[in-house]
Design goal:
By secondary structure, this protein is mainly α. It has a single domain, classed as Orthogonal Bundle (Regulator of G-protein Signalling 4, domain 2). It is 69% helix and 0% strand. The protein contains 10 helices and no strands. The chain has helices spanning 2-16, 33-39, 42-47, 52-57, 59-71, 75-87, 93-108, 120-129, 139-159, 161-174. Helix 6 (75-87) packs antiparallel against helix 7 (93-108). It is elongated. The two termini are 36 Å apart. Residues 1-24 have low confidence and may be disordered.
């Protein structure tokens, strides 16, 4: 029971968190947060500032970035990017069209529940690609969203209290 209560408190804490500060990293690190923090080195966390793709390729970097986007109410961009990455791994032709339709309806279509910020031309190209879905039908939209996150959200993440608190927490372990 205690384990379930802690998980619920973590989720509720995330919802009610007003600032982007995280002194308790249980809300953003997947798996077992205390063990994750012990495994996360300052060097690894510092490398996230080297490039946006380094951040996205690191399990804990991705989790921290996702937590930051939630504080800014813009997590749909990352969720779309992740959905596209998963979509590209689809091997079943039978599942391809259905998965593509779900992604389109959730993120691309006008008035989609988690509509991403893309221009009209990209939206229309993606709509045309949906007539014969392929593993590359979202490439342009995914590229636009990646570029937007890299130019806008990523620099703010590196200046955020989430990232600086996480860095100082890993450095404190070394002292």
């Amino acid at each position: 029971i205690d384990h379930r209560n802690r998980g619920m408190r973590t989720r509720l804490g995330c919802l009610s968190h007003k600032s982007d500060s995280y002194n308790d990293f249980t809300a953003i690190l997947p798996d077992k947060p205390n063990r994750a923090l012990k495994r996360l080195s300052t060097e690894e966390a510092t490398r996230w500032a080297d490039s946006f793709d380094v951040l996205l390729s690191h399990k804990y970097g991705l989790a921290a970035f996702q937590a930051f986007l939630k504080t800014e109410f813009s997590e749909e961009n990352l969720e779309f990017w992740l959905a596209c990455e998963d979509f590209k791994k689809t091997r079943s032709a039978a599942k391809l069209a259905a998965k593509a339709q779900r992604i389109f309806e959730e993120f691309i279509d006008v008035q989609a529940p988690r509509e991403v910020n893309i221009d009209f031309q990209t939206r229309e190209l993606t709509r045309r690609n949906m007539q014969e879905p392929s593993l590359s039908c979202f490439d342009q939209a995914q590229g636009k969203v990646h570029s937007l996150m890299e130019k806008d959200s990523y620099p703010r993440f590196l200046r955020s209290k989430i990232y600086t608190d996480l860095l100082s927490q890993t450095q404190r372990r070394l002292s």
